[in-house]
Design goal:
mainly beta; 1 helix; globular
Length: 89
């Protein structure tokens, strides 16, 4: 996924991952209620972490996968989880 940079005219280097049960799964897309895996996987409902890298910037957030990951669909439903670091403002 490339996002055009208005300042330099170049595309940003973007990488998306889902870290779950000690595995790193590459993502093709993220949204507010789901992510789309690059490859199929199978896991039961569990907690996970979404990681987004944009150039040298990294952002991580916790999610819960209420339906787990099905080998029949690369779309995975997510529910954001509040962490202490996120709730302190």
């Amino acid at each position: 996924m490339n996002i055009p940079s208005p300042v330099t005219g170049r595309s940003a280097n973007v990488r998306l991952q889902l870290i779950v049960v000690g595995r790193i799964l590459e993502l093709g897309q993220i949204g507010p209620e789901s992510v789309i895996l690059e490859e199929q996987a199978e896991l039961p409902p569990c907690e996970a972490q979404v990681v987004m890298y944009v150039d040298s910037f990294e952002r991580r957030w916790q999610v819960y996968l209420p339906d787990g990951i099905s080998p029949h669909s690369r779309r995975v439903r997510t529910i954001p989880q509040c962490t202490a670091a996120q709730s302190v403002r």
